[in-house]
Amino acid sequence: MLGGLGKLAAEGLAHRTEKATEGAVHAVEEVVSEVVGHAKEVGEKAINDALKKAQESGDRVVKEVTEKVTHTITDAVTHAAEGLGRLGQ
Predict the structure, then answer these.
(1) At CB < 8 A and 24+ separation, what contacts does 1-6 make?
(2) What is the DSSP secondary structure assignment for residue 64, as one 8-state letter?
(3) Taking the model in full, what pTM does it have?
């Protein structure tokens, strides 16, 4: 009879241990999922910020180059017109 009680106690302990382990695994899965989700959000934000900065930088460079080219062409045309004007005098 005592052997049967010991076996029953061992089975109960094994069952409780299994349930506790399942609970711990579930808790760890939730934490890992939350951490991965947070890391994904942070990574996406970092990528978006980097792309935005690159776009702004590219826009600024395009604007500067456009202004420089426009200024250079305007100067060249003005210079040519002045030269032609002197030839016509």
Answers:
(1) none
(2) H
(3) 0.53
